[in-house]
Structures
1.
Amino acid sequence: MTNPEITSPARSRRATGLPGALALLLSLGGCASAFMAGSAPVSAPPPNPAAKWTVTACKDITGAPIPMGSAITYYLEQGAAGPTLYEMDAKGNGAKITNRWDDAQGTHYFTHEHTSHGYELVLPADRKQPGTRNVYLRGAYQTSKDERGIIRPAGAPGAICVMNPS
């Protein structure tokens, strides 16, 4: 089987196959969907981001590369209520991801469509270092919500992408 094309949660679209017959939608463009939990659609990145990362390549769980559409760029905004992550694709579709938590790995952001894939973005404390974008496949993960309303994924990601600082 061929690997699926990775896009972004800003645009949700179905991809064609993955070894093991898993269907994969890797789209942050889907974040811009009204059905995404943990984020809201936006049409522009923040005006003065504190940091910026770009995803240009991803691998599935076997380490095989997954073709991507266009690059996806992430912008970190430091606001009064804490940091917010913006995702923007090359066509100007975007999402403002507000569902976050911190741990020893760094700051995690997670958004998902209840009937589709989930996206966890892990940003290191040193914002000049690469981050990680974990993609959780539909049907292969679950979510939990804590007392503060933070949604977290449970399960193993089906694809991992490097977020290169820029």
2.
Amino acid sequence: MVTMCQEKSMITNDLQSFFTNTGLSSMQFDILRFIGRHPRARFSFFTIARAVGTGSPNLGEAVMGLIQKDMIIAQMDDNGLTTYSLSCNRSSCGYIYELAELDWSEAMSFRDQLLQPGGPEDRLIGLSCNSACNRHMA
């Protein structure tokens, strides 16, 4: 006997709406997902770069954008090392936790659904599944 089951999606309408309206880049999405999985930790810039798998010069811009959106905070210690951690303002903290709880494949699928294909700044916007799937099939 073969039983078919469908995995329940953890992506709520509120989560989708929040990330659609924030205007994050895919790099910022990855940074939030990483930091959200470790909400009480503080990370150096190099640790974040390694965690999201990039040495891109745009990483600094992505981190600064998240600071400006009050999603992460920067703190300098007595030795001059700047560390970054989750800001946890009430409007975004719960959504970042929800994002962090997604498994890798679901998070990447969610990110792909939000990405605007061919956009110059790689901004996140809402897309239908068909648009995201067609982009990958081309």
